[in-house]
Amino acid sequence: MDVAFRVDASLDIGAGHVMRCLTLADALREDGGRATFLCREHPGHLGEMVRRRGHSLVMLPPEPGFAWAETPVHSRWLGASGKRDAAQSIAALGGALPDWLIVDHYALEREWEETLRPYCRRLMIIDDLADRTHDCDLLLDQNLVHDASSYRSLVPAQCRLLLGPEFALLRPQFAATRARAPARPPTSVATRWLISLGGVDKDDVTSRVLRCLREMPLPAETRIDVVMGASAPWTAEVRAVAAEMPWPTHVLADVSDMAGLMEQCDLAIGAAGATSWERCCLGLPAVTLVLAENQREGARMLEAADAVISIDDLARLTTDLPRAVMQLMQPAVASRMRRSCAAITDGLGTARVVQALTAG
Questions:
Q1: How does pLDDT run across 148-196, given as a tens digit for each residue?
Q2: What is the DSSP letter of 165?
Q3: 140 - beta bridge partners?
Q4: How far is CA 310 from CA 14, 87, 207, 238, 338, in A?
Q5: CB-side exposure of 218: number of CA atoms within 13 Å?
Q6: Is-contact 74 7, C-beta < 8 A?
C-alpha cells in the first residue's frame, strides 16, 4: 500500500500531528506499505525525524507574506493559502496515485480535499475538532469528545468513522508494556514523577511547573524525569531550573522509549494532548495542563472519566498545581485513577486503523 500524509509540525502547531502520523506510517510499513510525507518548512517542522524513521519526505517551501483567511480557525497554521497548498501538494505527489492520502491538519477542509481527490484513490482525515466539512472516505477522531452525530453533517454519507480512544494511534510498545507491567499496590507512595508538556512547549510552561514543585513538601526520595521534544526551544532553560531542584531531576530530550519511561513512573504532569492516550494505556494518573484551546474539551472529558485532574487556566498554575498534586499523591486517589485510565484505551488502536485502511 502506498500512502501519502499531508501533515505539519511547527513551534505553533506542536509535534503531535506528525508524531501520530509517523506511528501510523511505521505500522503500515510493517504491513508492507510505503509512506511519503508532505510537510511545509515551518520552524520546528520535524522533517529530519521523518527521514530518520525511514520515510520519504517532500518539503513544501515557506510562503513569506502569506495572509491567512478567517476560516478555518487554524488557517494561519498552513503557511500558505489553501489553493496554493493544494497545488504544491499535487506537484509534490509527482504523478503518483497513492492508495490513501491521509490529511492531519486543522487548516485544511473540504475545498482542499476536493482538489486533491483526482490525485489519490482514497482519502482519510485525522481530526479532533469536528468544526469543518470534509470530502473523505474515512475519518479518525481518537478523542472521547465526539460521537457519530458530531460528524454526520460534516462528511459524506458513505464515509466510515473511527471514533474514540480505541483507535488512538499509539506505538506498539505501549500495548506490549501494558501487557507485561505488574499491578501497583494500592497503597504505594508516589516518588517518581514524569513531566512531559508536549513536543514543543513554546511558552516554557515546564520551567513554571518545576518552580511550583520546588516549593512543595514532596518526599525526600522523589525523583523527577522531564521529557522535552526534539524541537523544544526552551530545553537549556529547563535544564537550568532542573539543576536547582531539591530532588534528582533529569531532563531527557527526544525520548525514544516513552512507554518504558512511563512504566517506571508513579504519577505525571502532562499536556492535555496526544500523550494523554499513552498515559491512559499504561494506567499513569496525571495532572493535565490545557496548553491550547483545542485541548480544553478533551481534558474536560478525561477528567469526567476520572482519568486526570485537569488545570485549564495557566494563570492559576501556582495555586491549582500544588492542590492537584497533593490530591493525586493520595494512594487511594491514584489507585482509582489508574483503573480509570487503563479502561480508556488498550493501546491497540493503530492496528485497528491499519486494518480499516487495508480493508479499503
A1: 999 999 999 999 999 999 999 999 999 999 999 887 777 678 899 999 9
A2: G
A3: 126, 162
A4: 20, 41, 19, 23, 15
A5: 26
A6: no
